[in-house]
């Protein structure tokens, strides 16, 4: 009896639905905790949201001034209503839609920003633009993680791929004087790291998590050694790569608030937009994606219908490494004109958390990475405007968001069935 690849993938859809109360519970918990802010520490004055960066912008918007405490209470009511809706949805054994979580998070952020910036001015374009910049390498890394796990290989080595990409982009970009060649070199570096992971995981059946962690440590040590011995010895010629220029898209860049954030970016950010779409489209709308998901769900059945499991995993792991390498290039070809030791600072692990938070879906993982980038940038902006929140809490905010997001907002999720499992052909 033959089994089609469509039947292998659709097996997940036929699983019995199990009601999960994790999301309504976490909604309720955050609603209660947030209500304590205006109740126990009311803030006088108004919060000003600046929506335009400069006076010469084509479209001018007035500053949005909101009473801090009143806005916080309105958001508490809206959060409670959203929580109630989530409870009703869950009781009816219906899957909570993504837009409901997005709405809840937006309401929470608006209320928190209004409360914490009382008496100050919050530059929204700078806040959102910085969040996108911090999230871009996370998105590339998360996309690499999604492809890897969907094909059955746990890509713990995202951190190593990002770091190797950043190093090679700086080295080759400086030596050639071309950021484009540096970008290609970063992709090649990511491919090489992912290829090492693939060889041990696919051919030699070594535990994928252990190999990934070892690769992260190995690449960190190797790049640190080469940084000291090579780049530091010739910083002007080997560690001063040219940066990609900012490109403004006509008309779109003049859209209020979102225009300067989304459409006044470098080519790597625009490539990120395209990559997210291509990975999503390819994963769910093409034969390549169907075969990839079949191998990640049931490799034996996929092998039965003629799909070559090992080559499929090899090629897709190399693709995942190339995408993650592009994220590494962002560090040295956009944000920082030189390579620094361990400059990724654990971004690969946060990207892996975004994969889990996004339920192994490229679009959801992208939104998760944007949330983590926003949390990281928020702590810097609030410290500048004089937020009453202790600086120690703001420094740990991105990691707190990561933990709560993965533990609470994900709900019931299941990774691809064969993720992390070596396939031994019988």
Brief account:
The chain is built from 17 helices and 5 strands. It is mainly α.
How would you describe what is shown here?
- With 426 residues, the chain is mainly alpha-helical.
- Helix content is 68%, strand content 4%.
- The chain is built from 17 helices and 5 strands.
- A 3-stranded mixed β-sheet has the order 2-1-3. A two-stranded antiparallel ribbon has the order 4-5.
- The protein is globular and about 65 Å long.
- The two termini are 17 Å apart.
- About 2% of the residues have low confidence.
Beta fraction of the residues?
Answer: under 5%
Number of distinct helices: 17
Radius of gyration: 23 Å
Q: What is the CA–CA distance across the termini?
A: 17 Å
């Amino acid at each position: 009896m033959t089994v089609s690849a469509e039947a292998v993938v659709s097996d997940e859809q036929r699983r019995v639905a199990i009601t999960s109360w994790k999301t309504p519970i976490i909604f309720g918990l955050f609603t209660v905790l947030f209500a304590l802010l205006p109740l126990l520490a009311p803030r006088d004055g108004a919060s000003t949201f600046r929506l335009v960066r400069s006076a010469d912008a084509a479209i001018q918007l007035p500053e949005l001034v909101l009473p801090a405490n009143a806005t916080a209470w309105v958001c508490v009511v809206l959060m409670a209503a959203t929580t109630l809706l989530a409870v009703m949805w869950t009781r009816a054994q219906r899957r909570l839609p993504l837009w409901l979580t997005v709405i809840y998070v937006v309401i929470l952020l608006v209320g928190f920003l209004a409360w914490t910036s009382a008496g100050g001015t919050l530059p929204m374009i700078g806040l959102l633009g910085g969040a996108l910049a911090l999230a871009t390498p996370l998105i590339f890394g998360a996309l690499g993680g999604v492809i890897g796990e969907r094909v059955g290989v746990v890509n713990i080595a995202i951190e190593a791929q990002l770091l190797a990409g950043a190093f090679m982009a700086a080295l080759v970009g400086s030596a050639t004087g071309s950021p484009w060649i540096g970008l290609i070199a970063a992709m090649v570096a990511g491919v090489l790291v992912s290829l090492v992971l693939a060889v041990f995981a696919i051919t030699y059946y070594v535990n994928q998590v252990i190999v990934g962690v070892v690769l992260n440590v190995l690449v960190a040590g190797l790049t640190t050694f080469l940084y000291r011995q090579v780049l530091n010895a010739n910083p002007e010629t080997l560690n001063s790569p040219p940066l990609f220029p900012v490109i403004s898209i006509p008309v779109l860049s003049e859209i209020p608030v979102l225009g300067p954030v989304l459409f006044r970016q470098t080519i790597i950010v625009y490539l990120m937009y395209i990559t997210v779409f291509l990975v999503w489209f390819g994963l769910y709308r093409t034969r390549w994606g169907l075969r990839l998901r079949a191998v990640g769900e049931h490799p034996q059945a996929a092998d039965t219908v003629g799909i070559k499991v090992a080559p499929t995993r090899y090629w897709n792991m190399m693709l995942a490494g190339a995408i993650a390498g592009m994220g590494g290039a962002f560090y040295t070809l956009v944000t920082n004109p030189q390579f620094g030791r361990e400059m990724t600072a654990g971004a690969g692990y946060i990207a892996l958390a975004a994969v889990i938070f996004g339920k192994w879906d490229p679009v959801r993982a992208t939104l998760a990475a944007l949330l983590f980038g926003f949390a990281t940038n928020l702590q810097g902006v609030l410290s500048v405007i004089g937020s009453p929140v202790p600086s120690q809490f703001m420094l740990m905010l991105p990691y707190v968001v990561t933990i709560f997001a993965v533990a609470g907002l994900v709900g019931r999720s299941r990774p691809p069935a064969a993720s992390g499992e070596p396939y031994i052909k019988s």
